[in-house]
């Protein structure tokens, strides 16, 4: 696959199959990240490949913004001491972030060519991430990349409009006739299937549920201070999904609601208005069920 074709097909995935990514593919993706430019040609980039299911699950738990259920994570970091020594404070604070983004894009394009999917995450919860991955104080985690085989029913693709491009100076519009490249249609991306928990969940002892839920809420509260508002609704509905996991005794209504939530929760990233309408429908179902459980119908 040539670069232009990879650019046409590249997208972010949030729903993956649980099967592992091969060592050969991970090696190629790591090589692609290493091929990205670095300011001053100084080796300041550090890469951490995480495939141990327990470690992957823990990284996701301390990073609520990690929406993907990928079985593998590639973390791109910067050695801050080395970056500052080579390029000064600008190199440490600005150029190294540009380099990290270039490395992530290399991974995304290589993944497309290799037939695997990726999802980018910027964690603002560095303290917990450092504790989980033993990151030294001088190493900054820049970008988490979820890696896996995309689900047969992927999450909806983002809809991009016409790019805003100026010519010669800002504000002077370039009358470019731009059309996104067409791709063969395989299936409707709105047909979102159930989310496989994969390495990120499942098989969790019931006694750990309260701790994991508390961890998710605390980490969410911290992340929400610095994240776009769009993540708030997802965090809340994801919290409901986690709360309903492994519920006992079995509650047929809640089991049905959890299945519906897991099918629809990623739509907030693609269509906020449709997501809002779905939440209204969900609330109506919960309201009717609350009335039934409280004997409201019987009392009328």
Question: Would you give an account of this structure?
Answer:
Helices cover 47% and strands 10% of the residues. With 300 residues, it is an alpha+beta fold. It folds into 2 domains: 3-148, NADH Oxidase (3-Layer(aba) Sandwich), CATH 3.40.109.10; 199-294, no CATH class. The chain has a 4-stranded antiparallel β-sheet with strand order 1-2-4-3, with helices on both faces. The longest helix is centred in the N-terminal third of the chain and has 35 residues, at 80-114. It is globular, with a radius of gyration of 21 Å. It starts with a helix and ends with a helix.
Short descriptors:
single chain, 300 residues, alpha+beta, NADH Oxidase, four-stranded antiparallel sheet, 10 helices, 4 strands
Could you write a compact summary of the structure shown?
This protein has helices spanning 3-9, 23-34, 53-62, 80-114, 126-133, 209-224, 231-243, 252-264, 272-293, 296-299, and strands spanning 45-50, 72-79, 117-121, 139-148.
Based on Cα principal axes, name the global outline: globular
Structural class, from helix and strand content?
alpha+beta
CATH superfamily of the largest domain: NADH Oxidase
Which H/E pattern describes the elements?
HHEHEHEHEHHHHH
Rounded radius of gyration (Å): 21 Å
Number of strands: 4
Give the N-to-C terminal Cα separation.
66 Å
Number of separate domains = 2
Quick one: CATH class of the largest domain?
Alpha Beta
Mean pLDDT: 79
Low-confidence stretches: 184-205
For the largest beta-sheet, the strand count, sense and barrel status come to: 4 strands, antiparallel
Give the strand order, joined by hyphens, for the main sheet. 1-2-4-3
Q: What would CATH call the architecture of the largest domain?
A: 3-Layer(aba) Sandwich
What CATH calls the topology of the largest domain is NADH Oxidase
Approximately how much beta-strand content do the residues carry? 5-15%
The helix fraction, in percent, is: 40-55%
Tally of DSSP helical segments: 10
